[in-house]
Design goal:
The protein has 13 helices and no strands. With 247 residues, the chain is an all-alpha fold. It has one domain. The model has no long low-confidence stretch (mean pLDDT 86).
């Protein structure tokens, strides 16, 4: 465990001392604030659709997912690609710490930063509680969904960075891998509803998953799906690194 904590500390220091991290954090807070304000403005109109502000905040439209994929790609692109660019990937992989510790530290460093992006948004339900009585259960479930979905996206981003030689390529790959989840959700509505492919894709759909979380429905199958997909991406990442170590 000591090598893991040492590597994680190294990752956290490298992340929070990077200008890109603060740029990503600033842009995320500005966009999330504007998005939340727009939600309140829409819901205040007489012809407002049915829904609560926080439910719409947690993936109420496709526009809320695409920027999230871009943010995660920016967070994860440096994890391994930067090591390759700096020439430190070989010493890191040949050090007596184990590939599992390296992958876990890279993932946790990026994932903790991803979670930190969402911490300031906790002020939104606090503001709502001053003028209304928001249901805390669906809000907590929404944040759980954001955390689980983030684990999947970050794991895919770390895998993309392990496959890439440059950070730009890593970001493009990360966005592409995560975009496949969005395309699966879109394809689920295009295919015949009763077909096997449609049922499988609906289960893997990000939209379906977040629709359940943001209304307060926590399904153990969704939790298992996110954990399994994250673990699979990290397992493939380890396989890529093992292949690089042996080559």
């Amino acid at each position: 465990m000591r090598p893991l904590w040492a590597l994680l500390r190294r990752e956290l220091i490298a992340t929070w001392t990077s200008p890109i991290a603060w740029v990503v954090l600033g842009i995320f807070l500005v966009l999330s604030g504007v998005y939340f304000y727009e939600i309140l403005w829409v819901l205040s109109r007489p012809s407002a659709p049915y829904g609560t502000p926080m439910a719409m905040f947690f993936g109420g439209s496709l526009l809320s997912y695409v920027p999230l994929l871009l943010f995660v790609a920016a967070i994860t692109m440096r994890t391994f690609a930067e090591e390759v660019h700096a020439g430190t990937i070989e010493p890191l992989l040949t050090a007596p710490i184990g590939t599992n510790a390296v992958v876990a530290a890279k993932f946790l460093g990026a994932y903790l930063f991803y979670l930190a992006l969402w911490v300031p948004t906790l002020i939104y339900p606090l503001l709502l509680s001053r003028w209304s009585d928001p249901a805390l259960g669906p809000i907590a479930a929404g944040y759980l969904g954001v955390a689980l979905l983030g684990a999947v996206l970050v794991a895919l981003g770390v895998l993309a960075s392990a496959l890439a030689r440059t950070q730009i390529v890593a970001a493009i790959l990360a966005f592409g891998f995560s975009g496949l989840l969005l395309l699966a959700g879109i394809a689920a509505y295009i295919l015949p509803p009763g077909s096997l492919a449609a049922r499988v894709l609906r289960h893997a759909s990000v939209f379906e998953l977040m629709d359940r979380f943001r209304v307060g429905l926590v399904d153990s199958r969704d939790v298992v799906f996110c954990v399994t997909l994250s673990a699979l991406a990290l397992f493939l990442c380890r396989a890529v690194l093992d292949g690089r170590r042996s080559s």
